[in-house]
Amino acid sequence: MGAPVRTTREAWIEQGLAMLAAGGPEAVRVEALANALGVTKGGFYGQFADRHDLLVAMLDTWERQAVDDVIRGLSTDHSDDARENIRRAGAATMSHNRMRPIDLAVRDWARRDPEAKQRLRRVDRRRMAFLKSQFALLYDDPEEVEARSLLAFCLAVGHDTLGTDSKGRRRLIDVALRIVTD
């Protein structure tokens, strides 16, 4: 018989992020994770010291995916690409794909947890810095750069939280972003 297959650290983190998105940090429990992965709890402790260690690793992964991986995929030093970079970065981090539910869950978690709040602030500062770097390629006035960055960020973060529903919401968001970037 071969050695048992170990569940990777990444698999635990990804399952933890999925559970966070579905039910908040309270849903991220070792036993529930093990059941979802089809393994025993013992394997968890081979990868993490405790649940807190997993939560920190989940925030690390979320930050890397939401900021580093997104920016790495863009050309950030040409003004002719700046508008497209702003649009693509927003779509990558705030669209209704896998990242959006995680981002919303982290925002909710940050309302109750100082460590999550600190991480969210850092991620938001990094996202704003990226937006400012792109808008600075388009506009000379630092105040205008700051204002356009803030509007674009608020649009990306807040569009889902509105209580209104519109059949053409995606189109309206695109129009609003075009207004902010033109």
Describe this structure in words.
The protein is mostly helical and 182 residues long. It has a single domain, classed as Tetracycline Repressor, domain 2, CATH 1.10.357.10. It is 72% helix and 0% strand. It has 9 helices and no strands. Helix 1 (9-23) crosses helix 2 (30-37) and helix 6 crosses helix 7. The longest helix is centred in the middle third of the chain and has 22 residues, at 51-72. It is elongated, with a radius of gyration of 19 Å. The model has no long low-confidence stretch (mean pLDDT 87).
Topology diagram in text:
Layout: H1 9-23, H2 30-37, H3 42-47, H4 51-72, H5 79-94, H6 99-110, H7 114-135, H8 142-158, H9 169-181
Helix pairs in contact: 1-2, 1-4, 1-6, 4-6, 4-7, 5-8, 6-7, 7-8, 8-9
Based on the model shown, name its key terms:
182 residues; Tetracycline Repressor, domain 2; 72% helix; elongated
CATH class, anyone?
Answer: Mainly Alpha
* Quaternary structure of the protein: single chain
Helix content: over 70%
How much of the sequence lies in strands comes to under 5%
N/C terminus separation: 65 Å
Instruction: Characterize the largest beta sheet: strand count, sense, and whether it forms a barrel.
Output: none
Structural class: mainly alpha
